Amino acid sequence: MQENLRFVPEGEINYAQTLNRVKASSPIDVVTTARAISELFKTEDIGPRSLITTAVQELQQTDSLDQQALILTFSFLLEGKPQLHEGTEEFLTEIAASHNYTGEFSQPFKRFIGERLRIASVPQARRGIESPIETRRMLVLLRTNSEFFHDLVNLQDYFSQRISPVMPLNTTWNPLLTELFKVRGTEGLWYVYSHNRREDYLQLMKQLMSSEWTGFNRFATEPWDTVGKIVNKEGNLLDVGSSIGISAVEIAKTLQMQGRIILLDYNNPLRNLSSLRIIDYANPNRRLVPLNEALAKMEDLRENRVLTILYGVDFGEPLNPSIKTVIQDSALVHCANTIPYLSPIKLHQAIRNAIEATSSEGGILKLHNDSSLPLDNIFHSITMQRQRDNLRVLPDLVKGRF
User: Fold this and answer.
1) Whole-number Å distance between alpha carbons of 289 and 157
2) Which of 114, 128, 271, 272 is deepest in the core (most CB within 10 A)?
3) Can you state the angle between helices 198-208 and 185-194, rounded to 10 degrees?
4) Which range has the worst mean pLDDT, 35-39, 72-76, 165-169, 348-352?
């Protein structure tokens, strides 16, 4: 820790020195540095705004692809004080004592529990998706059933190792399991453990566990006016991390882009076994949409635009020339919610790939984290325009908790 903070005198961050170090570091050193500074943000009364401002300035002053990728990686790795629902730590202490658990709870598991506590206490927290009443029953089960407690801890570890290193379990249930057990949500968890279906549940959860959460009108409601005025409407749109392309098609329609829509899904080892939760965000109840209905809706929205699908590509690794040829010179590169699903080292390469894929003739690159995701990241979103080797950050399109 001290080695990585030798440029931080007396608990204060020298922003220029920090960014100079970042630009000259390896990706591994950048990860370590970001973690060290994050500890200051978590424990000291030091705000991140000045550091992020300096990072944005440095980003625009370099024409080095390597340095641009390092600065953006560093910025997205910065964390602040954990955002946990009130009473989460106390609840965790209680259930650990109840089940004689002496291990450390991971931050994703804390977020998982915090979200359940929020839903249980706020009636409209996730209307139409998870019932507060059934969530409270699940929390009682968590207090009283040791098998259930340990199963959830282990499932979160399984999820963290194979799907996302920082995200909590994205749901307490799965649409395919809902169909099998004829129950849904937390009611399903209660059913499994009260009807001796535990082994079936654990086996199927590991097979069908999914990180995917997509929906209609989720990104079309963003303020696209600034991008719409300058994007090349005849150019191609590359959507990184898209599952079936709903949001990409909606973005292309919103911006009136007529070029190809290219879907490049980052590599997921459970891709063929995972299931989609497709939400109609335009519906007041945010209803779940069957896959067939979602695909039909996407076809209707697509109109005459060509859809190119590149599944199974590991965007966190250097891309082979054939893939680069397909995605190069994209007028808009949209990376939405991919960051939480990539390890820090893969994140660096993914950002580098995204910059390379963006057209040097005014192409737009948008790196976007949904601000509603239960993450501690300080930096959420940035939109840039590439002119030759330079990246210009678009005003008012930098978002975060700073």
Assistant:
1) 29
2) 114
3) 140
4) 165-169
Q: Helix 65-77 to helix 49-61 angle, to the nearest 10 degrees?
A: 170
AA identity, residue 326? V
> What are the DSSP calls for 193-232, one per residue?
HHTT-HHHHHHHHHHH-----EEETSSTTS--HHHHHHS-
What are the boundaries of each domain within the chain?
88-208, 214-368
What is the distance between the alpha carbons of residues 178 and 149, in angstroms, rounded to a whole number? 21
Under 8 Å between Cβ of 209 and 202: no
Q: Which amino acid is at 67?
A: Q
C-alpha–C-alpha distance, residues 355 and 66, integer Å? 10
Q: What is the pTM of this model?
A: 0.88
Length of the chain: 402
pLDDT, position 99: 97
275: which 2 tokens?
């299931």
Beta bridge partners of 400: 379
Query: What tens digit of pLDDT does each residue of 156-214 get?
Result: 999 888 888 888 886 666 666 777 777 777 778 888 888 889 998 888 888 777 665 66
Whole-angstrom CA distances from 57 to 54, 68, 104, 391, 393 are: 5, 11, 39, 10, 9
- The contacts of residue 402 (CB under 8 Å, 6+ apart) are 47, 48, 49, 52, 80, 378, 379
- Count CB atoms within 10 A of the CB of residue 129: 18
CATH of domain 214-368: 3.40.50.150
- Per the CB < 8 A criterion, the answer to whether 235 and 363 are in contact is yes
Distances (CA, A) of 357 to 11, 323, 332, 338, 369: 39, 10, 9, 16, 19
> What local confidence, expressed as pLDDT, does residue 213 receive?
60
